[in-house]
Amino acid sequence: MNEFFPEVSRIEFEGKDSINPLAFKYYEADRVVGGKTMEEHLRFAVAYWHTFKSQGGDPFGSGTFQRAWNVGSPMEVAEKTMAANFEFVTKLGVPYYCFHDRDMAPEGETFQESISNLETMVAKAKEHQAETGVKLLWGTANLFSHPRFMHGAASNPDPHVVACCALQVRHAIAATKELGGENYVFWGGREGYETLLNTDMKREREQIAAFFHMCVDYARRIGFTGQFLIEPKPKEPTKHQYDFDAATVLSFLREFDLLDHFKLNVEANHATLAGHDFAHDLAVAADAGKLGSIDANTGDLLLGWDTDQFPTNVYDVTRAMLVVLGAGGLGSGGLNFDAKVRRGSIDGVDLFHAHIGGMDVFARGLLAAQAIIDDGRIDEFRAQRYAGWDTGFGKSMLDGNETLESLEAKALELGEPKRVSGRQEMLENILGNLI
């Protein structure tokens, strides 16, 4: 497998003193951290769409990339792209990849041709997986690019469009099952609205819920045992997204009796666009027992759109990994690099530089997070800060044994509370020193 990246051999770990740009400085797959290897903790995956289908365009300019695999008829391009994907993933040494159906197989002139294209490419992907040992972390359906979805997919006011959505998702779930995918993701890129003047929001949310119940039923009937994931996103392209952030998605799942069937695929860039930081949305999902997987990227806080950059901030990633480790890991999920190289990074080798950097940053974050846990000072401080709820009337309140009157009596007995410092700066220093 040396057709598309002949200048690159398998990426190896060389340590932090290495100056080889095509080597890992911190990511050592077999290194044991907290009882598991780095590979088991991080479960890296390459995003088929950004890595191989991105043309280098942005909202203000056309594509700049000239990829060797992007030549020929649509199906010839699909086959070359798939070969490039497995060559890249194998040389990078990650265990997983992810795909959208329309990135793996082109849209046909008819629905039946689209189905046939996907089935053909799934068969080829299965051969590549068997040859390389690379596995599928998750599959999904692109329900946002085609003009038919301009007013939404499952939330569309036209049932005909929703039927088209069902057709596409059914085959995408079946493809994911055929390839041994460990998860299936729903990303509602068009599930939202611009104005209530033409939108019945209550009806549209009910439509999405009904559609998700059909997906759960279909997965059960075909024996797909992978985890269903929903990916929150606050904006782009619609002004009001129904999956705005982790809390919104969890509320939706509870409201429509879907909580037992879904977890969340949290993306860093989406969290910041929602006005949160990455660790916050991870913690919201984890506290509900619903942290399923991660889209590992970052945004530029000086820009107002989903820039999907590779992660470089060790502090942010360390705080994210503290949440992941505290939740017991990602289960069947992983860290998918839903990120793309910049418009001016036009060479194929730039794809390797980007992924190496992102993997090293998460390896550093993992090491730092484990060091913070082993050190124990931050956990101890937090436990002491809330110690009053473990005994006495604090615990009694949580147990349901207090009233407003009984708490009033306690306040009158104890008088004004003593003010206690939150020690934020000290804790930030501990975190920084252990990084």
TrEMBL record:
Keywords: Carbohydrate metabolism, Cytoplasm, Isomerase, Magnesium, Metal-binding, Xylose metabolism. SUPFAM superfamilies: Xylose isomerase-like. It is an enzyme of class 5 (isomerase). Residues 121-284 form the Xylose isomerase-like TIM barrel domain. The active site is at 100, 103. Its cofactor is Mg(2+). It comes from the Bacteria. Mg(2+) 2 binds at residues 267, 270, 306, 308. It is found in: Cytoplasm. It catalyses: alpha-D-xylose = alpha-D-xylulofuranose. GO terms for molecular function: isomerase activity. Binds 2 magnesium ions per subunit. Mg(2+) 1 binds at residues 231, 267, 295, 338. Its EC number is 5.3.1.5. Belongs to the xylose isomerase family. Homotetramer. This is Xylose isomerase. It comes from Pseudodesulfovibrio portus.
